[in-house]
Amino acid sequence: YTPDQMAVRELVFDKIKKCFKRHGAVQIDTPVMELKEILTGKYGEDSKLIYELEDQGGEILALRYDLTVPFARYVAMKKIKNIKRYQIARVYRRDNPAMTKGRYREFYQCDIDFAGEYEPMLTDTECVKLVCDILKELEMNNFTVKVNHRKILDGIFEHCGVPAADFRPICSAVDKLDKESWEDVKKEMVETKGLDPAVADKIGVLVQKKGQLDLIEELEKSDLGSNKSAAAGLADMRLLLEYCDLFGCLDHVSFDLSLARGLDYYTGTIYEAVLAPDAKGENVGSVAGGGRYDELVGMFAPKGRSIPCVGVSIGIERLFSIMEKKMQQCRTSSIQVLVASGQKGLLKERMKLLNMLWECDVNAEMLYKANPKLLTQFQHAETERIPLVAIIGESELQEGKVKLRHTASKEEKLVDRNCFVDEARKWIAQEQD
Fold it and tell me: How far apart are CA 175 and CA 170, in angstroms?
């Protein structure tokens, strides 16, 4: 990545971390490599995208596919009862990259997860709120957070006559409705997965519905409402939407029955954030997704000790792609003061001033030439958008002064050498305001 791209990435990371910390999350880290057996069987049809490492006579390893499964293993291994954690790290998928759409084989994920026993739907709602906060913080206000519930989907499948053994494969097909037409999804269900066409048609009537509390009421009054699994999921959804209203984010939330999330470990609420099509009418795709996975920790814990978990992952690479287009000029340097001189033989004096700034925790630099021209130094400050230049010359040395020059306005001010750092800080603070 170029310095310009890295500046954008750092800005986005900082904003996301700020949101995570605002909600009280603590940071952890997990290894890039996991035992292959830890990862397999958790991702449904996407398991084929796991990077497996060649066996060299030791343990069979694989590169992590996401941050959720390693987190569940971490919770089990450390015997943690509750934690609110965030993690920002690289993950790996043996996928077909699409650089313009922010899809890579190696990419960052930004996850926040809640592990532990809490009142129903509180942490689920906070995940939705976090997604809304982060997207607004990044000035991407035209978005929708789709929400659904695995119990509702299972209830739909049971109600429509799908064999229990086929729930997950059919769920994986439904998950493609955001990219494919119902006709294509139905074709996959019938021709590839062997589902009865009549059963597929029943599913199609339901999974294309979306709304909010109105849809919940409609489904509760329908035949589906008598299904035990669907009824439990609808009760959770009602509470989730009520809490979203209290958190001020309901306007961005859509109860969408087509949302399925193909990963096998989800057990309850699921959600996905999508941006509205851009000015050219192109769909960016999902920029965040997550859900509840109450049984995943138990797969790694002694005696199957279960710890309920819910979390969300920010699709950071897609956000980077959008932000890079929006921010044509992003400052790459964090330097606040350039130390300069317009006369020869003052390299050591510049170094002294530079060290004074560093000792006081001010970001500063000078040009690495013995006798650079003053104009060249001014041009460097303008190009790198360094807000302040500290100038030392023979007259300033004799008088015990330093000249401060504001790069944008060209305003200059002569200050005492022993307080020039404080004066520089004042100017920098004004610049930031």
Answer: 9
